[in-house]
Specification:
single chain; alpha/beta; Rossmann fold; five-stranded parallel β-sheet; 5 strands; 49% helix; 11% strand; globular
Length: 197
């Protein structure tokens, strides 16, 4: 039996090959140019609205709407099918991974896969705790470290929205302002790259 992560990756590759004329190498290069230094917002479709309200809004206010990758299966089917193949490449080039953690996310194979990538690829991580779910349930390594350890490599922290949303938003915004987590985008280079795509 194929594990859920392998099944997801196989469908991504199959979708790409079947739908696009560009090679996987061209997609990889485009994602490097477009997503380097940005923020990736990892969430499950069930938490999409929550993320738009409490995470996307604050990231956009801090760095602009071109500073992050946010794709939700709650979006239109066409958008998801067209862009989900880019997730694996965008993920590896973004700087910081924001993980929306909830009981719903720990049941999502996609959310678990993205948490695994965040740990394996050694991205800075901010966990946004929607409820009292233990981060270790999403990925064992996320529970092994003190969460306000900015000296750790990679740095990881957690903003707790579960008790008081306003406090969580304030905490999250302060983390976004730290050099370890903030978007680091060369917009001039990215615009030039878009002209070549």
């Amino acid at each position: 039996m194929v594990d859920p992560f392998t099944a997801i990756l196989e469908t991504i590759e199959r979708d790409w090959v079947g739908q696009h004329t560009r090679s996987v190498a061209e997609l990889d290069d485009a994602c490097r140019l477009l997503f380097s230094g940005k923020i990736f917002i990892s969430h499950t479709a069930a938490d999409s609205l929550w993320c738009k309200t409490h995470v996307v809004r604050l990231v956009a206010a801090a760095f602009g709407y071109d500073s992050f990758f946010f794709l939700s299966s709650a979006d239109t089917k066409h958008k998801v099918e067209t862009h989900r193949v880019a997730v694996t490449f965008a993920f590896k080039y973004t700087k910081t991974i924001i993980i929306a953690l909830s009981q719903r996310s720990v049941r999502s194979n996609w959310a678990r896969l993205e948490a695994s990538w965040a740990v394996e690829q050694k991205h800075p991580i901010i966990i946004c705790r929607i409820d009292d779910t233990d981060p270790a349930v999403l990925h064992p390594d996320l529970g092994k470290r003190r969460w306000f350890d900015f000296k750790a490599r990679p740095p990881r922290t957690s903003a707790d929205f579960s008790r008081d949303v306003a406090v969580g938003e304030k905490e999250f915004t302060s983390f976004l302002g730290k050099k370890e987590f903030r978007a680091d985008i060369d917009r001039e280079a990215q615009w030039a790259a878009m002209g070549r795509l």
